[in-house]
Amino acid sequence: MEPDKDSVKPQEDRNVGITENKAKRSDSPMDVDASQSEKCERTENGKPLVQDLSSGDGAVRPKEDCTSTEQSEEKKQKLDNSETSPELKTEAAEDAATKEMVTFKVMFNKQKYDVTFDLDGTVSALKSHIQTITGVPSAMQKLMYKGLVKDDKTLRELKVTKGAKFMLVGSKLDDVLEVNKPVDKKALEEEDKKASATKEPFCKMKQHKKVLDKGIPDDVQPGIKGVEERLPTVPISGMVNKANSKVRLTFKLELDQVWIGTKERTEKLPMSSIKAVVSEPIEGHEEYHIMAIQLGPTEASRYWIYWVPAQYVNAIKDTILGKWQYF
């Protein structure tokens, strides 16, 4: 007996319905792996459209667009990683290693600073580096190495070698501001009057007067009143000491020494060992000074030099004491 066709048909319809439901469930977003950043929705002109979840706006784009977005993210990640990559750091280290460096000393305020700098670097760049070490503004620095050096010269051109010594003359900004503070002029005048009344000028003291009375030495260098000049490149000669013996001063900046030479001997004094330098113009011959270099803690250790040309007095003080002098 054949089954009724009408009775079979609903069964087939039910089977078809089950198949369609399965197909719909397979397309459900719940079946898509949550780690994926895109979900296929439909196609247009043969290209699948996907929802780009990585962009944050959930927009539906062609799959190619989503792929380009992913590629851009990958490129960005590579660039970020390259900034701190060991290879780049190695390359930077190799560049630094190609520079020829030289180590030397900078003398300032009786202190020594070890400095390592590019041999092909300029003096101007060196001053900026020294500012970070000493606190002396580069614009207020004077660097001396076998004489005053120019900003546009390189260390190689100056023939700087390992262990060389530079002399720095300058003042920290705080010191300059302290000096420029307003002062009570009346109080200063009163102090000067008191000091003048109690202090006898050097040239009037008996111990100095007997040297000065012998007159200006024939071979002394010409003195210039009211002018300041740099130290000459040759020794300052023609002066005399307390025993009226000829004296010459030689400044060895690379050794941080001042040499006091006489006919009998030459004293090589480290500048850092000198405690003070004082001077006064000679009355009636103001183009020359009496100068005392104090070698110990008391005035009894002063080494007296007579007929020092006035134009070099400040330069001598600056070089020996390693700081600016305000006059």
Automatic annotation (TrEMBL):
<dbReference type="InterPro" id="IPR029071">
    <property type="entry name" value="Ubiquitin-like_domsf"/>
</dbReference>
<dbReference type="GO" id="GO:0045296">
    <property type="term" value="F:cadherin binding"/>
</dbReference>
<feature type="domain" description="Ubiquitin-like">
    <location>
        <begin position="100"/>
        <end position="175"/>
    </location>
</feature>
<feature type="compositionally biased region" description="Basic and acidic residues">
    <location>
        <begin position="60"/>
        <end position="94"/>
    </location>
</feature>
<dbReference type="InterPro" id="IPR000626">
    <property type="entry name" value="Ubiquitin-like_dom"/>
</dbReference>
<dbReference type="InterPro" id="IPR057455">
    <property type="entry name" value="UBFD1_C"/>
</dbReference>
<dbReference type="Pfam" id="PF00240">
    <property type="entry name" value="ubiquitin"/>
</dbReference>
<feature type="region of interest" description="Disordered">
    <location>
        <begin position="1"/>
        <end position="94"/>
    </location>
</feature>
<feature type="compositionally biased region" description="Basic and acidic residues">
    <location>
        <begin position="36"/>
        <end position="45"/>
    </location>
</feature>
<feature type="compositionally biased region" description="Basic and acidic residues">
    <location>
        <begin position="1"/>
        <end position="28"/>
    </location>
</feature>
<dbReference type="GO" id="GO:0003723">
    <property type="term" value="F:RNA binding"/>
</dbReference>
<dbReference type="Pfam" id="PF25343">
    <property type="entry name" value="PH_UBFD1_C"/>
</dbReference>
<protein>
    <submittedName>
        <fullName>Ubiquitin domain-containing protein UBFD1</fullName>
    </submittedName>
</protein>
<dbReference type="InterPro" id="IPR039120">
    <property type="entry name" value="UBFD1"/>
</dbReference>
